[in-house]
What does this fold into?
Amino acid sequence: MRKIINQPKAFVDEMLEGVLLAHPGSLRSPARRVVVRADAPRHGKVGIVTGGGSGHLPLFMGYVGTGLADGVAVGDVFASPSADQVLEASRAVDGGAGVVYLYGNYSGDVMNFDLAAELAIAEGMQVATVVGTDDVASAPEAQAERRRGVAGIAMLYKVAGAGAEEGRSLAEVVTVTERASSGLRSMGVALSPCTLPAAGEPTFSLPDGQMEIGMGIHGEPGVSRGPLRPAAAIAVELVDHIVDGLSCGRGDDVAVLVNGLGATPVEELYVLYRSVHGALVSRGIDVRRAWVGEFATSLEMAGASVSVMRLDDEILGLLDAPARSPLLARW
Amino acid sequence: MRKIINQPKAFVDEMLEGVLLAHPGSLRSPARRVVVRADAPRHGKVGIVTGGGSGHLPLFMGYVGTGLADGVAVGDVFASPSADQVLEASRAVDGGAGVVYLYGNYSGDVMNFDLAAELAIAEGMQVATVVGTDDVASAPEAQAERRRGVAGIAMLYKVAGAGAEEGRSLAEVVTVTERASSGLRSMGVALSPCTLPAAGEPTFSLPDGQMEIGMGIHGEPGVSRGPLRPAAAIAVELVDHIVDGLSCGRGDDVAVLVNGLGATPVEELYVLYRSVHGALVSRGIDVRRAWVGEFATSLEMAGASVSVMRLDDEILGLLDAPARSPLLARW
Amino acid sequence: MNEALLVDVLGAAASALEDAAPELNRLDGFAGDGDLGVTMTEVARIVKEVLATGVAGVPELLGAIGTGIARGAPSTSGTLVATAFLRASQACGEGGEPTALLARCFEAALEGVRARGKAEPGDRTLVDGLASVSTSLEASTADGLEWREALAKAAEAARSTAQATAAMEPKKGRASWVPQRALGHPDAGCSMLAIVLSAAAARAAG
Amino acid sequence: MNEALLVDVLGAAASALEDAAPELNRLDGFAGDGDLGVTMTEVARIVKEVLATGVAGVPELLGAIGTGIARGAPSTSGTLVATAFLRASQACGEGGEPTALLARCFEAALEGVRARGKAEPGDRTLVDGLASVSTSLEASTADGLEWREALAKAAEAARSTAQATAAMEPKKGRASWVPQRALGHPDAGCSMLAIVLSAAAARAAG
Ligand SMILES: Nc1ncnc2c1ncn2[C@@H]1O[C@H](COP(=O)(O)OP(=O)(O)O)[C@@H](O)[C@H]1O
Ligand SMILES: Nc1ncnc2c1ncn2[C@@H]1O[C@H](COP(=O)(O)OP(=O)(O)O)[C@@H](O)[C@H]1O
Ligand SMILES: [Mg+2]
Ligand SMILES: [Mg+2]
Ligand SMILES: [Mg+2]
Ligand SMILES: [Mg+2]
It folds into this structure.
């Protein structure tokens, strides 16, 4: 194990202590394993609560900031937070205009956010839910609502967060975020496993020189495993799968996000982006915005994912709105 | 090898193509392997030119942006760019107020930047140089000017870039950047080697469960090698070495940067930060600003570095000034 | 079924769960992320903790376990197991004849898990296991079986359902891309249920 | 020394450099980053490329090689080797007796490398190797030796200086923290110089 940690059991709580020590002006913790913007609740603003397992930074906590989410419930490594934590986060960010639960579609998270929503509504809050389901490898197009949420959710935070920051209503924020989500698809390739601090052993085995297309961010089996192929071939395969269900073609505008899973150098992500861009442009699709970097990781897994979001003027405007979070802002 | 690449020889150029395709509004390339801000040259503004080997993103190209550097000369993986490239970058960013060469102290880079400076001055430009020498493991305090530059240079870009953006003169920018540099120290720990695309083999061997304190970012031998220790112990050792030469103690203000070398999850960097913060605070040092993330990597090396910069009001003001670059901005 | 006996039986089930952790990780790994054993180790720890603090009253004990798991092991299976305990706690409030009580508890657990997880019978989840256990306990109630016997039959039903899931092709979600990976291996959650019920029945039997 | 001969000798030196790449990486790895062989492979490729294009005139040829390396292999050692070629090109412009010409070229190269790299003799760098070669060529000029003989002596001097660096404790920079790592191994840059001069001398000798 090659980890800079102390006791594996203390990993998540020590990480959180570090976050709060590093960013005291921007973040605070109203309850155990709950982190919110220091200025929450913002009166009259729709609050956005997210959450999920640890080990995916900057997902989820990294998206707590201005023009993004307001609060996060932090689970154990690769494990859902509890309904209690989500409820505490909701209380801390609700400014009277309601709260959107925006997170990735994993059964544990869904159950705990759903339970929290019941409890929050019982307390008199307005709660609506939008679940990220962008991973096309996790279920066929006909079962799109069963798909898992992966790195594409970064763009949903941007859309929802900008809408909320502008003062839109709960229903308006939900409507535009759902529209963005329905035009969002992602797919990834894994080149190595990762090791959970508490387990000390890799989550699965993927021999050097092999890749698994469509593997889940916790190492769930993907669509195919085989010898590692060149970046250009990987890009074409990912874009084919993504564009298939997106019914997106000549003249359509999209935003693209190329995400590193943890151990893949940013240089390689740009090599991949180069071919992703080419594959989209060759279909006549217009790439209006692009981000390349780490947006949702799986500890130190090697690999990358590609996300494509269909744009309209309203969504593009929200993507372009200012946003800032202490974990994302390298300046 | 677990790399998303095509031909290893094409790695750097394809990466650059990807960068330019992803950020067409922000960056442009006036010459081969030279990248500058799209709006360069800015009339009357001091230009900042940096450069160095590839494989360290976001260093160096990631710091080309508003309030940061204006241009970069991009070398091969872990190899210096040529004087020609530096000269081209200088020509493209010189707005008549002179150019600062700000880069890390590696002999190949120094020689090529020095040669470029001679050529640029011969062409009538004003050129001044500030070299980052923050790596305390690379030479003893008595030979501080021989030290290598590592992740701390991220803070120097911020200081110099903000000063230039404010309209300061070449001499003023150099003076404050040199003062910031003289109060800046870094040290790192490596937990695994990395593999150059062209080589296909790890740069050195570091068995699982071992760490090397003070190893250079190209794998140059460090101060000591031994069994991997807990994050808290690593933090104390790094802070001890750093603070030693900084003559910094009770009542002093500092900014801290905890940097990941490539494959270390951000969660671990925050666990490390927690103890770094504790070690500084226990000496009575006041941590005024902190950044945690990847600022200077070595491909997919596992490990981290800690940088500490002594602050005065002027430097703190420059660190707080707005800055934005397409490669750093996740939003 | 008195409280001391329940403590004893639940303790045995928790120990069996701990022992089965590597096997549960392995089974979860075929189509899932291979962490069911990790979660269940945590669940077992929480069960034993609550048992050790000695909560008075069967519904209270089950409720405390449910709450403890919901807070302390909030993963998919943890949340479902917590839901099962909470619903069982509510269902057994009125007391009654042990076999009927058991049947009522598992029926409530099944309904709770279905509502929370939105899976249907045939989806190759814990719901399949709970459904067969619930059906078996209902039949035993109708047949007037003693609770130990009923529990043994329920464990038998859980085991055979787990076996049956091995032949069920995953039709939904990620696993449906590569049905051959899961095929031939029992569902991890159903195996977990079979293991705890078998341990409980064995302890109850003596 | 005519141009055809120079092309021949430089080609032999370049081939030797390519063959020595793994060894140069290994030596550079003890106290450096282990990439000298990578850089020198590139340098050798550029030298051969320029030789193949056939530039007219000795100074022009050396200059083209220097410029090519400066553009195409701009690392520490690449830049220093480029500087050496560029300075040699300038120094040999006036022509003259071959041994004196060689001595002048290497003296100019030494001065160029010292100015560019700011290392002093004794720092355990390429400067130590170039200094001993320059001294040897000066003595050979004074002694009136034929250039092939002078080159052989210079190669001998380069080899013994490389050997001597193995006993030099790195007093500066990173390597000074762990002097024992470098100690016992010759400096990589000096070994490189010894290898190319030996190959050149052997080819010149026929
Ligand atoms: N929606 C659901 N309803 C009922 N049981 C489920 C559901 N989803 C998963 N399960 C059960 O949970 C088991 C996996 O649990 P766990 O490993 O905790 O899930 P994950 O790691 O995906 O969060 C499965 O074998 C299955 O029996
Ligand atoms: N300042 C210098 N002056 C002269 N020679 C130097 C200098 N620095 C390094 N060298 C030589 O260069 C060799 C290493 O070259 P190289 O591997 O290209 O350096 P790096 O990888 O550090 O850029 C050393 O063995 C030494 O002989
Ligand atoms: Mg699982
Ligand atoms: Mg899981
Ligand atoms: Mg080297
Ligand atoms: Mg090098």
About this structure: Chain A has eight helices and twelve strands. Chains A and D do not touch (no CB pair under 8 Å). Helices of chain A lie at 11-22, 83-93, 107-122, 153-165, 170-182, 231-246, 266-281, 313-320. The two ends of chain A are 32 Å apart (CA to CA).
